[in-house]
Amino acid sequence: xxxxxxxxxxxxxxxxxxxxxxxxxxxxxxxxxxxxxxxxxxxxxxxxxxxxxxxxxxxxxxxxxxxxxxxxxxxxxxxxxxxxxxxxxxxxxxxxxxxxxxxxxxxxxxxxxxxxxxxxxxxxxxxxxxxxxxxxxxxxxxxxxxxxxxxxxxxxxxxxxxxxxxxxxxxxxxxxxxxxxxxxxxxxxxxxxxxxxxxxxxxxxxxxxxxxxxxxxxxxxxxxxxxxxxxxxxxxxxxxxxxxxxxxxxxxxxxxxxxx
DNA sequence: ATTGTGGCCTGCCCGC
DNA sequence: TGCGGGCAGGCCACAA
Length: 260
Prior knowledge:
Blueprint: H1 4-14, E1 22-26, H2 39-46, E2 50-57, E3 60-66, E4 71-74, E5 80-83, E6 86-87, E7 104-110, E8 115-119, E9 126-129, H3 145-152, H4 159-164, H5 174-183, H6 197-217, E10 243-247, E11 250-254
Antiparallel strand pairs: 1-7, 2-3, 3-4, 4-9, 5-6, 5-8, 7-8, 10-11
The structure holds a DNA duplex.
């Protein structure tokens, strides 16, 4: 599913639209439009605008426009981005690799004939105007040690739940959170505020290095723990059986023998 | 305020 | 072989 790594790949692809003028918008699925927008409003606002740049905060992709408010794109779990017929990612975990025309939820057509399309079978993503980036926590890829402390301090919530809270820390999804906690040898069920200084430092170091490494490998499904995320899966390090629990409302695979 | 839960969406996988 | 019940998780509304 698109976590921050995948959305960053989407952003890089979307860079191709910079400098291009929007001719029209197809928004066939009203459910996909946030803020009560409808297709006609969106078309009226966006037509004629020129893409000035792209940015990303966590899992939110933003197109900055000349002549219109910024356009916010959320991809949910199964949303993919296609620009000029080319997909940023061929296949998403937990989503179909097919590209049915009926799954195209939103399309921006440019005057040069190309287009930017969101393909989302499950319709969990959405499109907004002038998205409120301030509601998101700090960006995970550039998080500082003191930033991580602020994310976790004085919280009784499970460590993993806090890492997934986009208002506290932007970008991590279920797979990345499990991979990071496994690498840091920290139990997802620990109280977030209960980490000592050395654990905080370890978590920060692992968080940053894991994001960097998996970015190079190709996405949030390329972690070392990923292949073991199944019933009967064994810890890739110690080969003890992994636990499968609900933590923070998400299916969590972890190694009780190593993660403390 | 903090934390937890359930529902939304729908393709796909597994077991019968 | 076909069928149907779970399952997947990002996000939001709502409850305690």
